[in-house]
Amino acid sequence: MTDRAAKLQSAGVYQRSTIRDVAARANVSVTTASRALNGTGRMSEETRERVRTVAAELDYRPNSIARGLVQQRSFTLGLLTNDTYGRFTLPLASGLSAAMADRGVSVFLSAGEYEPESLTLNLRAMEEKRVDGLIIAGKRIDRGLPIDLPPLGMPVVYVYAAAPEGAVSFVPDDENAARAAVRHLIGLGRNRIAHITGPEDFKAARLRESGWRSALREAGLAPHGPAVFSAWTEAHGFQTARAMIDAGGVPDAIFCGNDQIARGVIDAFTLAGVRVPQDVAVVGFDNWEVFAQATRPPLTTIDMGLPGLGRSAGLALLDLIDGKPVEPGVRETPCQLVVRESCGANDV
Amino acid sequence: MTDRAAKLQSAGVYQRSTIRDVAARANVSVTTASRALNGTGRMSEETRERVRTVAAELDYRPNSIARGLVQQRSFTLGLLTNDTYGRFTLPLASGLSAAMADRGVSVFLSAGEYEPESLTLNLRAMEEKRVDGLIIAGKRIDRGLPIDLPPLGMPVVYVYAAAPEGAVSFVPDDENAARAAVRHLIGLGRNRIAHITGPEDFKAARLRESGWRSALREAGLAPHGPAVFSAWTEAHGFQTARAMIDAGGVPDAIFCGNDQIARGVIDAFTLAGVRVPQDVAVVGFDNWEVFAQATRPPLTTIDMGLPGLGRSAGLALLDLIDGKPVEPGVRETPCQLVVRESCGANDV
DNA sequence: CTGAAAGCGCTTACAG
DNA sequence: CTGAAAGCGCTTACAG
């Protein structure tokens, strides 16, 4: 035992076995032990097995810091986001870290809202840790982070955020998702379909509106009035539905730009005695369960598949890191319609 | 330039400068460069300055992997959680990572719901990265993670989760927060104060109920009926309020166990023409803004200060890692009442 | 005040 | 099929 090991142990620090311990116990060189454990090189099956058994006995955990130093890789990724709200980031991060863990890669999280200094500090800490690459996630698809990143000298993949020219990025396929939602309504026999959504300066709002229009066009239907753009809030949905009632122009279906708007819409109708889904069908967007499950009736809505988005981004980043060719550009990943009861689809 | 450097550079890999580059350019030994950069050792101010200037010129970033290898520290923490929902984890993680970044420490996130294998894999990846310590976060204060952690051989701090005997853990001070909420109501002249909350088998529900009782007792008031325990949902709040109306026993204030319940309560009253806050004041718990801001009127509620909780836990973990004495046990951190309009406090 | 040397725990040419 | 040696980029006794 070295002096250091003795000192650490007497200080109560748990001392891990190293590859030298494994090699010694298995009567092979460190070289052979390394190769046996990593499945590289050629050696007798017997030797490889013996080394592995010994490693298991010693509960050996390779020190990826040491490995990283020689391989010039840290097996580590950074996830940088300005969404501290959690709505997007956590599902995304969990999909990402699950996929990465399978490959021995861990991910650093740096979440900071509106605090450029904090993001910068986190970024610097990650640079010093020599992360192999970076995932940059936002909270809207047409905005980047609130800081100008310095030249990073490492691969970067963008998710749910605006990306610079030539970068690799992933966003949900808002337009097709919207089209699918509206088609669902059409398939249930609705033909006066309105759209209430978020602010027009959000690209997501524009894409969803466009999906709504094109599904109607394909079916030979006219939009029921213009789309009503405003805040992504319940209040917006509530007031707009209220206004429809007052004007006597209630449609037979409403496609909403998000679940909160849908919630407000349903509340307003319920309050006024308009029945959902009998009189008017409602679809949301996001599948944010605290809303989608809490509406009466439960909300049919679009799930953006955020964990899958995180996973895809991570895998693309890994390819980039490995120097594999990755087509630059914006990848639009498919979303899924989650059918509950707000359209009457399950009553048939 | 070494062969490796040449090869990497020709492969388009950005090559960082090392401490040797800095030392050479500043005409000092690597030893001196290291000491100058770290502020250790004694040397002329002039030398130290010169080294630092050169480091800045070369945009030198110390390789914390190499440093970690010799110092047997990775300057890295793991955050393990089974809350993929995001409600608790992300605010907590952002407070944690901000506080850690200030100290050059980065945090790995592993979030996995109900997937023991995934958590195990992530944990193993973190062990191999030699994280200096672990933060284990849950989604209720009386449950641990769904996996039995193997002996970890590293410091651990628990947050918002059950902790084993003798461990260091942090939870919000539910009982005093509840007491403060109820005192607020009493201070506004309310004296028939009911309590609607989550399932009784949640410790958080029991603590909040107990805070409600003791605030009333201190003020010489009787509880308005027994606490109504059930799900943490809007539906529970809605139905219970509805039942109060039907029974003709509407109190003049309701302290709710969370914001969702409060939301349901307010909706039911509004629907029945009972005015909030004029006829009945409502307080929630969580300060979950999508709910607390969306109720009409906006909700007065308790903020648990999750970023601060994450920060405190991180600092305690750092102390543990540094071998400083840390008192074991459960630390109950103070919460804050956020006054909005559902109690009429701002109308005075 | 400054530096040469050893070493952290691995991987990987290179040699046999 | 196997191993001795060099080296990844730092820090830190030890020596002067």
SSE blueprint and pairings:
Two copies of one chain form a homodimer.
Chain A: H1 3-10, H2 19-26, H3 30-38, H4 45-57, H5 64-71, E1 76-81, H6 89-101, E2 106-111, H7 116-128, E3 133-137, E4 156-159, E5 168-172, H8 174-187, E6 193-197, H9 203-218, E7 228-229, H10 234-247, E8 253-256, H11 259-271, E9 281-283, H12 289-292, E10 301-303, H13 306-321, E11 329-333, E12 336-338
Parallel strand pairs in A: 1-2, 1-3, 3-4, 4-5, 5-11, 6-7, 6-8, 8-9
Antiparallel strand pairs in A: 10-12
Chain A binds a DNA duplex (16 and 16 nucleotides) through helix 3 and helix 5.
Protein model, in words:
- Two copies of one chain form a homodimer.
- Chain A has 348 residues and is an alpha/beta fold.
- Chain A has three domains: 3-62, lambda repressor-like DNA-binding domains (434 Repressor (Amino-terminal Domain)), CATH 1.10.260.40; 73-171 and 306-333, Response regulator (Rossmann fold, 3-Layer(aba) Sandwich); 174-304 and 337-347, Response regulator (Rossmann fold).
- Chain A has helices at residues 3-10, 19-26, 30-38, 45-57, 64-71, 89-101, 116-128, 174-187, 203-218, 234-247, 259-271, 289-292, 306-321; strands at residues 76-81, 106-111, 133-137, 156-159, 168-172, 193-197, 228-229, 253-256, 281-283, 301-303, 329-333, 336-338.
- In chain A, the strands form three sheets. A six-stranded parallel β-sheet of chain A has the order 2-1-3-4-5-11, with helices on both faces. A four-stranded parallel β-sheet of chain A has the order 7-6-8-9, sandwiched between helices. A two-stranded antiparallel sheet of chain A has the order 10-12.
- In chain A, strand 8, helix 11 and strand 9 (281-283) form a beta-alpha-beta unit.
- In chain A, helix 2 crosses helix 3 (30-38), helix 2 (19-26) crosses helix 4 (45-57) and helix 8 packs parallel to helix 9.
- The longest helix of chain A is centred in the middle third of the chain and has 16 residues, at 203-218.
- The radius of gyration of chain A is 27 Å and the shape is elongated.
- Mean pLDDT of chain A is 90; it is low at 1-12.
- Chains A and B meet through helix 5, strand 1, helix 6, strand 2 and helix 7 of A and helix 5, strand 1, helix 6, strand 2 and helix 7 of B.
- The first copy, chain A, binds a DNA duplex (16 and 16 nucleotides) through helix 3 and helix 5.
- Chains A, B: GO terms for molecular function: DNA-binding transcription factor activity; transcription cis-regulatory region binding.
- Chains A, B: Keywords: DNA-binding, Transcription, Transcription regulation.
- Chains A, B: Residues 17-71 form the HTH lacI-type domain.
